[in-house]
Amino acid sequence: CGGAEVGTGGDAGGADDAWSAAWDVNVMAHVRAARELLPEWLERGEGRFVATVSAAGLLSMVGAAPYSVTKHAALAFAEWLSLTYRHRGIAVHAVCPQGVRTDMLRATGAAGDLVLAPGAIEPEEVADAVVAGIAEDRFLILPHPEVAGYSAVRATDPDRWLTGMNRLQQSLESGPA
Which of 49, 133, 155, 162 has the fewest CB atoms within 10 Å, i.e. is most exposed? Predict the structure, then answer.
């Protein structure tokens, strides 16, 4: 149900309006949806919240500080919903794809071309992963299964992870070879 997102690129020096737009769409849309849906779900003792997060919420994305930061927040909100309401019949799922062949991917520029485009999948593949994840009652839905391994490295060896991501950043800055 929380499916809107804005792919704001940029760095820490980006304009406040880009940061605000990313926060409003990537985080607050989920908060607003939950605010509307939870009372009825809690009253009847069941409901299902599907948050469109992104692999960036688990891993970060070069060249896209507002997007990465707000996707981490969207994942944290979905986790909070699950840990708070699971025992009251509310199922929560966080969908975390990498590149998906959409207009948003095409608008990501060099960072998307470098990191996302090579392994991009069709929107229908994401939908299939969501259906399977809901059927298996999984919180984390990874249409790109390799994200689980990347996330494990990030969690267990953050220095290694950050060094690798910095290499990607350097590749982005140096441009095509």
Answer: 155
Instruction: Summarize the confidence of residues 134-161 as an average pLDDT.
Output: 95
pLDDT of 60 above 80: yes
Kindly state the DSSP code that residue 116 receives in the 8-state scheme. Answer: I
Q: What are residue 13's phi and psi, to 5 degrees?
A: -85, 5
- CATH code: domain 16-172 is 3.40.50.720
Which of the 8 DSSP states describes residue 146? H
Do 111 and 157 contact (CB within 8 A), yes or no?
A: no
Q: Report the Cα 78 to chain-centroid distance in Å.
A: 11
> Would you list the domain boundaries of the chain?
16-172
**Burial of 165 per CB tally in 10 Å (0-12, 13-18, 19+):** middle
CA 98 – CA 146 distance, rounded (Å):
10
Question: How distant is the alpha carbon of residue 7 from its chain centre?
Answer: 10
Strand ordering across the sheet containing 90-95 = 47-52, 90-95, 140-141
Q: Distance between CA 9 and CA 100 in Å, rounded?
A: 16
Answer whether 0.90 is exceeded by the pTM: no
Backbone angles phi, psi at 100, to 5 degrees: -125, 130
DSSP E strands, the chain: 47-52, 90-95, 140-141
